[in-house]
């Protein structure tokens, strides 16, 4: 019987699929260790406010400093962390770290600096999520208006009504909500007017060609103008060059995040950039 099973397996899984599964299991196992060993670290990417021409906030972006594999980017482990549920302790860890960092920047004399943290659908779904956010805010004694939570529209679409309710609860605490990656899903204004959000982040894929493609430029201009009429604060993501920046200025975009100003950097580097 066992032999038969073994035989079937050989047919079902070819060598490379087998290899993939082994890698996944190993990765999952080392993810447990990684939480204990504090291998998840945050890189911060500055956001510049165009009106005041100053850095008013940053986005927290997780990296995994793996003892053997080196620095692993989020796209390579967040999906597995979501499948296994490990995103819940990892997400909590990131949120706590980011909140501590806001406090730490305040102590250094920069009073209104805000940080935004990405939230996975698995976290939002978890019944303990709001409680854990409250605990962290209390523990750190943080002004909630300095914290933004980033949520993608696909997360919201999954179960619109209950998620809207949760987001309203978070906003009632004073936290800001950003809709991340706007434009990559089924985004329509008809849909976003229903969402209780404060900030709209236009995805990099829209920004990439605004300086070379007149139609892309028109679309982004339209998004910004409607979003601002709906009272959203607008952030453009993935801005890499001066031409893009100039167009976004003309179009009255509020904030810019992109390599043009800074790549994501670790804590010490962030401090240097801010105190410069
Ligand atoms: P995101 O939230 O949309 O973050 C923006 C991504 O674009 C980041 O990639 C950032 O490094 C990159 N980026 C920013 N400006 C530029 C630019 O000018 N040029 C280019 N080429 N790239 C730019 P990163 O750090 O690899 O993160 C990828 C995604 O992983 C994030 O997309 C987010 O969805 C997810 N992620 C990151 N950190 C976390 C986290 O703590 N929790 C969860 N649940 N997801 C996270
Ligand atoms: Mg984000
Ligand atoms: Mg994004
Ligand atoms: Mg993204």
What Rg do the Cα atoms give? 21 Å
Helix amount? 40-55%
Distance between the termini: 70 Å
Strand-pairing-aware structural class: alpha/beta
- What is the β-strand count? 9
Sketch the major β-sheet: 8 strands, mixed, barrel
| Shape by Cα distribution | globular
The mean pLDDT is 92
Q: Please give the count of helices.
A: 13
**Beta-strand share of residues:** 15-25%
Order of helices and strands: HHEEEHHEHHEHHEHEHHEHEH
Neighbour order of strands in the largest sheet: 1-2-4-5-6-7-8-9
Low-confidence stretches: 1-8
Say which molecules are bound, naming each kind only once.
Answer: ligand C2E, magnesium ion
Protein name: EAL domain-containing protein
Domain EAL: 24-276
Organism: Oceanirhabdus seepicola
Task: Lay out the secondary structure.
Blueprint: H1 2-12, H2 15-36, E1 40-49, E2 54-66, E3 70-72, H3 78-84, H4 87-107, E4 114-118, H5 121-125, H6 129-140, E5 147-152, H7 153-158, H8 160-172, E6 176-182, H9 189-192, E7 199-202, H10 204-207, H11 214-229, E8 233-237, H12 242-250, E9 255-257, H13 267-275
Parallel strand pairs: 2-4, 4-5, 5-6, 6-7, 7-8, 8-9
Antiparallel strand pairs: 1-2, 1-9, 2-3
The structure holds ligand C2E and magnesium ion (3 copies).
Ligand C2E binds at residues 45, 61-62, 73-75, 78, 91, 94, 118, 120, 150, 180-181, 237-240, 257-259, 264.
Structure description:
Strand 6, helix 9 (189-192) and strand 7 (199-202) form a beta-alpha-beta unit. The longest helix is centred in the N-terminal third of the chain and has 22 residues, at 15-36. Helix 4 runs parallel beside helix 6. The chain starts with a helix and ends with a helix. An eight-stranded mixed barrel has the order 1-2-4-5-6-7-8-9, surrounded by four helices. It has helices at 2-12, 15-36, 78-84, 87-107, 121-125, 129-140, 153-158, 160-172, 189-192, 204-207, 214-229, 242-250, 267-275; strands at 40-49, 54-66, 70-72, 114-118, 147-152, 176-182, 199-202, 233-237, 255-257. It contains 13 helices and nine strands. Mean pLDDT is 92; it is low at 1-8. It is of the alpha/beta class and 276 residues long. Keywords: Membrane, Transmembrane, Transmembrane helix. This is EAL domain-containing protein. Residues 24-276 form the EAL domain.
């Amino acid at each position: 019987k066992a032999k038969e099973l073994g035989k079937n397996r050989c047919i079902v899984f070819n060598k490379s699929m087998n290899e993939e599964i082994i890698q996944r299991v190993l990765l999952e196992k080392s993810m447990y260790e990684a939480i204990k060993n504090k291998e998840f670290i945050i890189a911060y990417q500055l956001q510049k406010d165009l009106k005041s021409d100053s850095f008013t906030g940053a986005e927290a972006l997780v990296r995994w400093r793996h003892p053997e594999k080196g620095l692993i980017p989020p796209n390579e482990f967040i999906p597995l962390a979501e499948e296994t549920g490990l995103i819940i302790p990892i997400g909590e860890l990131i949120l706590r770290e980011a909140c501590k960092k806001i406090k730490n920047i305040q102590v250094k004399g920069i009073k209104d600096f805000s940080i935004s943290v990405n939230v996975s659908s698995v976290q939002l779904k978890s019944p303990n999520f709001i409680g854990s956010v409250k605990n962290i805010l209390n523990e750190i004694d943080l002004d909630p208006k300095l914290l933004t939570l980033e949520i993608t529209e696909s997360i919201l679409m999954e179960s619109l009504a209950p998620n809207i309710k949760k987001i309203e609860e978070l906003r009632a605490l004073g936290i800001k909500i950003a809709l991340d990656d706007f434009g990559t899903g089924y985004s329509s204004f008809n849909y976003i007017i229903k969402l209780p959000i404060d900030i709209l982040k236009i995805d990099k894929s829209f920004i990439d060609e605004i300086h070379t493609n007149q139609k892309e430029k028109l679309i982004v201009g339209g998004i910004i103008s409607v979003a601002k009429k709906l009272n959203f604060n607008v952030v453009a993501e993935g801005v890499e060059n001066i031409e893009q920046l100039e167009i976004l200025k003309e179009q009255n975009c509020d904030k810019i995040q992109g390599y043009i100003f800074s790549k994501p950097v670790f804590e010490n580097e962030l401090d240097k950039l801010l105190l410069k």
